[in-house]
Amino acid sequence: MNTGILKGEYVAHSPIRESHEKYFHASAILKESDLKLVFITCTIEARFFDPVKKGMNDAAEMLGVRCDFMGTAGVNVIEQAEIIRRAIDNGYDGIAVNIIDPEAFDAVIQEAMDKGIPVVGFNVDDHATPNARLSSVNQKLYEAGQSLAEHLLPYISENAQILMTMHDEGVSALEDRLNGIQNILKRKNIKPTVIISGNDSKKGAEVIAKTLKENPGIQIILCTGQADTEAAGMAIEKFFPKNGYWAAGFDLSPKTLQLIKDGYIRCTVDQQPYIQGFYPVVQLTLYLRYGIKPSDVDAGAAIIDRSNVDQVMELSKKNFR
After folding, report:
1. Closest CA to 60 of 294, 304, 284
2. Do residues 218 and 190 touch, judged by C-beta distance below 8 A?
3. Do 91 and 35 belong together in one domain?
4. Terminus of the chain with fewer CB atoms < 10 Å: N or C?
5. Which structural domain, as residue segments, surrounds residue 209?
6. Is there a domain that residue 318 lies in?
7. Rounded to whole angstroms, how far apart are CA atoms 43 and 239?
8. Cα separation of 180 and 148, whole Å?
């Protein structure tokens, strides 16, 4: 395990911080223009990242920097770490990383920082182990899971049978949300059934529908990400439209919002991905140009339901939500 900056009170006592301050004076504040930044993520084609890209591009245009967005086709932490390493070699001035694993990127992030290339997190942070990244812009995931469960608890009966889904294995964000939801569900003696639905919502709907048919006592589906939330609503819409089934989950897509409007999804939690693209650009640029140290930003956990879905649908069309 590599030693790195920790959040909170530990930052002030970190020896890494002193080396960073030397870097400020040695070179960072001299970079007034021509900055080249990169965002590196997993499942790069996922529609979730459209607002992230818009936020990134809007901030880059505002600040006059260049930003690229790259990553892996699926969840592959070894390949993602290698992309980070190539970004270091290719001369990027600053890097934003979707830290989907608490250990897989520790070494390469430390390598970047040691070479004077600042790194910030976006979308998912490493909160479990030491990591040299300067900050992260992301939802507090475990707490967001708790918030969703608290919101839904009045609609869930004691000992209810519940299906919970994740669209991929090996993504700490989904596991954190899952654990947060399960922690609250214990109050009603609920032990949910958990499945992996896949990152394709149409195929995921088939997987979820099959599970529901095999378990007729389950009528509630609680999801942890965009693809499985959309899939759960699609499964109910297609196979169980008038049987009292309902779903709830995370993130926004045009289909998810329509399913909320139509009543198949009770609500979803928005983690505001636009700011997950916007603020890392601001943080890296201010750090590189003026030595202004980044700080963590909570992207929030806003509940979207029928009461506000129309407004969000309009903003979603423009990739702000």
Report:
1. 284
2. no
3. yes
4. N
5. 141-270
6. no
7. 28
8. 9
